[in-house]
Amino acid sequence: MATDVATTTLGIDHRKLGMWTFLGSEFLFFGAFVSAYLLYLDTTAGGPGVEIFDIPFTSISSFVLLMSSLTMVLAHHAHTKGDLRRMRLWILATAGQGAVFLGGQVFEFNVFFREGLELSTSPFATSFYILTGFHGLHVFVGILLLGSLYVLSLTGKIKANQDVKTEMIGLYWHFVDIIWVVIFTVVYLIPEIAVLD
Amino acid sequence: MREQSHTRRRRRTPVYLGVFAAAAVILAACGDAEQNALDPAGPFAQAPHDLIIPVAWIALAVFIFVQGLIILSVVRFRTRKDDDGSLPKQIHGNTRLEVIWTVIPAVILAVIAVPTVQGIFEVMEEPEDYLTVEVIGHRWWFEYYYPDYDIYTANEFAIPTDRPVRLEMTAADLARSPDLGVIHSFWVPRLAGKQDLVPGQTTFLNIQADEPGRYLGQCAEYCGVSHANMRIRVEAYEEADFDAWVEAQTQPAAVPADGTVEAEGRDLFLELGDGRLACASCHQVWEGDGDRAPQQGPDLTHLLSREEFAGAIHDMTEENLREWLRDPDSMKPMQYEVNGIGMPNLDLTDDELDALVAYMLSLD
Amino acid sequence: MSSTQTPEQQADQGHDNHPTPRQYVNIALVLAVLTALEVSTYFFEFGAIAIPLLVVLMVVKFLYVAGWFMHLKFDSPIYSRLMYTGLAFALVLYAVMAVVTLFDHAPMI
Amino acid sequence: MSSTTEQTGYAGRPRQRDGFVGWITTTDHKKIGVMYFITVLVFFALGGIESGFIRWQLAQAEQNVLTEEIYNQFFTMHGITMVFLVVMPLSAAFFNYLIPLMIGARDVAFPRLNAFSYWVYLFGGIFLYSSFALGGAPNGSWVGYAPLSTDAVSNMAFYAVGLNILGVSSLAAAVNFIVTILNMRAPGMTFMRMPVFVWMALVTNFLLLFALPIIAVALFMLNVDAVFGGQFFEPATGGDPILYQHLFWLFGHPEVYIMILPAMGIISEILPVNSRKPLFGYAAVVFAGAAIGFIGFGVWAHHMFTSAIGPVARSAFALSTMFIAVPTGIKIFNWVFTMWGGKLRFNTPMLFSIGFVSMFTIGGLSGVTHAIVPHNAQQHDTYYVVAHFHYVLFGGALFGLIAGIYFWFPKVTGKMMDEKLGKWHFWTWLAGFNLTFGPMHMSGLLGQPRRTAVLPGELGSTVELYNLLSSLGFVVLFGSALVFLYNLIDSTRNGEASGDDPWDARTLEWITPSPTPFENFHVVPTITHRDEFWHRKYAEDEAGRAIPVPAGAAEDPDAGAEHDEHIHMPDPSYWPLVQTLGFFPFGYGLVYGNFLLIGLGLAWLVIGMYGWIIEPVAEGDDDEPDDAEQVAPTATAGAH
Ligand code: HEA
Ligand code: HEA
Ligand code: CUA
Ligand SMILES: [Cu+2]
Predict the structure, then answer these.
(1) D582 lies in a domain?
(2) Would residue D455 count as lying in a domain?
(3) Using CB atoms, which residue from C89, C97, C106 is nearest to D210?
(4) Does A138 map to a domain?
(5) Is residue B7 predicted with pLDDT exceeding 60?
């Protein structure tokens, strides 16, 4: 099809435009979960509340995720230069950091769970788990995508001149990162400070 | 093409519509129903009514104007038989017209908006010297409590005329019901518009009746299987009659004399045996001692003072009561088996039924 | 938003105008510093400015990632429009919803 | 089309373009459009039959045709079916068939994603209807308010999951159409030259894009509460049921414009053609459409006027709701003035279009009366509201869409639909419609609440009369629908040949032969005007009179255009179908809280995704062909 960028109306690639269109709608998706969470901050039904958070721990995993954006963009950069080998290296680094983040989240969930914050404990618990869980799911999908990128570039399905594919997956990855930037502040830091005061 | 012959018929549609609308309005005016939103019987129904009537006229005017334009263009600009086949003048638009039909509707709406906003605040305001009635929506019946008099009743309740009544509403008392509560809506059209009852929250509604009489309504928010069978009856009494009603309701239930079939019924009511749930574990018949506080079912202390039962859908007759006790689900679908909601079938024998019905009929 | 002002003609013709790896690393360093600042609000007392500060930091980080790593600064403005439209919708709609829920709502019992 | 791609060397890619395999593997937007259409017919019949039972039950007071349980399932499924399985996908059918043709493209931006959307829609519908066989259909109404819907007896898990599956379909389609419209216009097709239908499609798909994620969240929360013990809306632990209402209507109101805007686009095409003059105030109509879409996001709480929200919110939403009448009015008046001064031809599409303008106005005006909040408390959840939304949905959306069916039928089949039957259909449809829904205005105001399985005798004899009239109206509608169905089937076989341009139309799709050839345009046209095709046929003199351009006199604007050496068309693929099947285990897993099924479904979807990605690069694929592969000879073009 007319994916030849030169022949499109706006002079841009369909897939990139499609990805951005999709990301625009994702804000409304996460926004609804974040709103529910904020509305239920105090609705703990006697169970644990925000004081349960371990800010130093989450800070580290947040930082890892943030830095994965750097490796992601470097992977894309390498791809634009046609350097598939280096691209794969950075992809691995990105996926690895994503995995660390996910591992942190699993660990965190486990701790909370043992401290009595179950999914059905309170609206606060449900909205916390579902919001961060959905974000985790996005990270997981991102890792799958990165894995495919890695494998497909090895098998030759993704070629040196197809950097738009890396770029697309990069967009998705950065988006997931951006959302975490918001979650980290709005879900963890601000309520924690508001409660400690 | 042969469309021309059909233009005449096109004209008839709006005419038919108009006739229909007119007929409908006339029919409505002579409607005698006790649940008629077009026939307000108190200030909280009158105010919205006074607001909607002019709006309806405006809407009708806009309607006639637009349909008139359509008919006019259809008639005037149909392709005629002797048409030369040339094309009409190619007009692309007209800015002045665009401005006109943007501004005029906007002005009309602005005019409507002012009283609307005023009305919103007026209807919701706390009235002076009102009587409070607490309303609890259960699946699928309404419970009423008068905090001033410590009276409980169900489905049917009484109000004094000419005095505002403020309903303090919520859905399902979480403490004493397996029904964790769903949203219902209290609606007696002749007394006021509707207001939802939300579990875990309190909402308010003002009602008032100017004339004594019976006003009907029903739950207006879909609430599950028997939503249709969740009706409301309001009896409005002059002050003296209302006081008498209150007086009667505050009395404890009479205890039937020993040895009568009613007394037998009372015993069954308190203790059914055979591992069956007792009526008293769900229902209250207050005999004067202890708190007057019902459990999950309707208060039966003055059952016979009500004309209908089971969500006010069945007349309070002996046969109906008997059938109700024999097999409640056949009278009104409920979900006792799957959900613990409603009244169970207690497998009563004929003798038990006789006794219980007799006892019920003694609760006046 | 500076990113939306990118002139049309720069749009996505090849990738010549993309930043260099060095610039990317610099951005990442800035992000790291900002994050450190954020986390420090937990350890030190910032008083009343803590929450506004956190919000500002969040927005700055957001814009940096979006503008540089996602190339919004350098790409066709249509991407920025798509993204910020979605963001604006989300912010406004949910803010109104939250205001109604918190301040103009039936009393809870 | 009969061409088969003669590729060699690639395994696993279907070759056939016709026959059964050709249909189920197709990535051709036209075939997908037709498949949407046929599926919609089936669901429309189901939704219609459900409403038939509703009307039967309510024909008289205190009837027992259906039990409460069944009645509640029927009205819920009726609402869901008509909204999500009929009106929305029927609009999608038009989007599919027409958008590429109207903007001068050969397909949509992502052909396989397009097929994916269709299959997800089909399976989502089947999934929803499978609930009838699995312990009962959802019975919590199409709005699915919590906490009623989190109760297991409401079967609303099927609703939550089913609608979310359908949402995936619509979201994918929205991305696809937005990219197509933004990025695949023929040379010269600027925004202000696009047909109004394409504009409305663009607005609609943006509404979908921004509204669907909201309901996805609402439904998912419902799902979590109902099946996995979540507490989002659970009053017992402090959850707020009103939050669900906000989220639902944040989607729900844009949704009603999602349903009406495509129909508005359709009649904006039909009225000018049959008035033989251009659309009055093109820019105003387009702008008003966009404004409706935009304001439509700011009025949602008008469905909650009697819910637990306070006076300030009630006032604010009353104002925004009223305001939306202004852009809608702009459209109505522009349509009327399109007819004004024209030479009107009353063929069936035109009749339905005029019917739209007329009936929609009624529904719109009753909508404005809903916004009178104090009185809304009387109207809300009564048959007055039922009347309102059937007037806008049936009298509006459905009338417009049916007009479109008659109008573009020749484009799709090369045959005309029978005019005589068409007129029978129209007049009985109009009469039956008004007979069914007109009386509901009255029965509602007389106090009849909606969603009630029995019509209480206490409501009075007038209400019974109105209900009987409504039920009779359904009978008329049913007969009328049969006429329509017969007309459709019969005309497909025996219809008069239509020629390429039966209506003397204005827009690009009629430039191509009818039925549309596989590659749409032999040569992609270059656009110099709005209503390009018209301007190739007619010139305007100084007085604004149009004079036909003698054939061949004008320069062929495309003469200079390079004839494509070989036309790239998307190849068929099994994967959209195969992958989509994974929604079944996934969906049932979510309904029954079975993690094994969920995992299986997810794995299936992921594997399907890989199948999709690594599908051999074929010429015409939406993948960038490697330089080496691009030289491969192309058979598609040769076939013509
Ligand atoms: C296609 C779908 C569609 C459309 C287009 C509309 C259009 C409108 N709707 Fe409707 N609506 C529904 C579908 C739709 N609606 C549905 C499905 C429900 C019920 C949901 C449920 O509960 O199940 C509903 C319910 C509904 C309610 C809630 C009722 C209740 O439950 O209490 C309200 C309240 O304000 C409302 C208002 C409006 C308004 C103001 C418009 C406006 O957009 C109409 C604007 C049009 C006009 C006004 C006519 C033309 C204008 C002129 C000729 C100009 C001059 C006019 C004036 C000066 C007034 N609608
Ligand atoms: C576009 C939307 C749409 C359409 C077209 C319709 C069409 C009809 N609807 Fe409506 N309806 C809704 C959307 C729609 N509805 C919604 C959203 C609700 C709210 C649900 C809720 O409260 O949750 C509702 C609710 C609703 C109610 C209220 C139920 C209640 O509150 O208890 C009623 C009652 O009369 C009703 C009746 C009808 C009737 C008689 C038709 C008729 O016009 C139908 C006519 C159709 C036919 C006659 C089809 C026949 C088809 C064939 C014969 C073709 C055969 C083809 C093949 C075999 C391939 N509908
Ligand atoms: Cu209670 Cu409906
Ligand atoms: Cu609405």
Answers:
(1) no
(2) yes
(3) C89
(4) yes
(5) no
Measure the CA–CA gap between D141 and B219, rounded to whole angstroms. 15
Cis ω before D439 (30° cut-off from 0): no
Ligand 1 centroid vs D393 CA: distance in angstroms? 10
Strand B308-309 relative to strand B314-315, pairing: antiparallel
Query: How far C93 CA lies from chain D's nearest CA (Å)?
Result: 8
- Is the residue at C22 inside a domain? yes
Would you say the CB of residue D394 lies under 6 angstroms from ligand 2?
yes
Ligand 2 mutation pick, D67, D78, D85, D437, max ligand atoms within 8 A of CB: D78
Ligand nearest to the CA of D364: 1
Is C109 among the domain residues?
no
Q: For residue D283, which phi and psi values (nearest 5 degrees)?
A: -60, -40
The answer to whether residue A4 sits within a structural domain is no
Domain count, chain D: 1
| Alpha-carbon distances of D194 from D104, D517, D537, rounded to whole Å | 10, 22, 18
Write out pLDDT tens, residues B281-298.
888 888 888 788 777 889
**Domain residues for A161?**
14-40+55-196
ipTM here: 0.92
CATH of the domain at D161: 1.20.210.10
D65 lines ligand 1 (CB under 6 A): no
Percent of chain C whose predicted confidence (pLDDT) is above 90: 33
Ligand nearest the Cα atom of residue D39? 2
DSSP reduced 3-state for D546: strand
Best to test chain C binding among A8, A13, A27 (most C CBs inside 10 Å): A27
Contact C101 D240 (CB under 8 A): yes
Contacts C54 to A, Cβ<8 Å: 185, 189-190, 193
> Is C25 inside a domain boundary?
yes
Residues 222-241 of D with CB under 8 A from B: 234-236, 238-241
Q: Is residue D606 part of a domain?
A: no
pLDDT above 60 (res B14): no
pLDDT tens per residue across span D20-33: 788 888 888 999 99
Please tell me if residue D331 touches chain B, with a CB cutoff of 8 Å: no
Domain membership flag for residue C2: no
Q: Which residues of D touch A122 (CB under 8 A)?
A: 231, 237-238
Distance from CA of D99 to the nearest CA of A (A): 15
The tens digit of pLDDT for each residue in B210-227 reads: 999 999 999 999 999 999
CATH of residue A115:
1.20.120.80
- Is A47 a member of any domain? no
For residue D513, the enclosing domain spans 28-557
Provide the shortest C-alpha distance from residue C100 to chain B (in Å). Answer: 15
Domain count, chain A: 1
Tell me, yes or no, whether chains D and C touch by having 3 or more C-beta pairs under 8 A.
Answer: yes
Find the distance separating the first CA and the last CA of chain B, reported in whole Å.
78
| pLDDT of the residue at D556 | 56
Please give the distance, rounded to the nearest whole angstrom, from the Cα atom of residue D455 to the centre of ligand 3.
15
The pLDDT tens digits of the residues spanning D556-579 come to: 556 555 555 566 677 788 888 889
Domain of residue C34 covers: 7-104
- What's the domain count of chain C? 1
Atom from ligand 2 closest to the CA of residue D436: 40
pTM of structure: 0.93
pLDDT tens series, chain A, 197 aa: 334 565 778 878 888 899 999 999 999 999 999 999 999 998 888 888 888 899 899 999 999 999 999 999 999 999 988 888 899 999 999 999 999 999 999 999 999 999 989 998 899 999 999 999 999 999 999 999 999 889 888 887 788 888 888 989 999 999 999 999 999 999 999 888 877 65
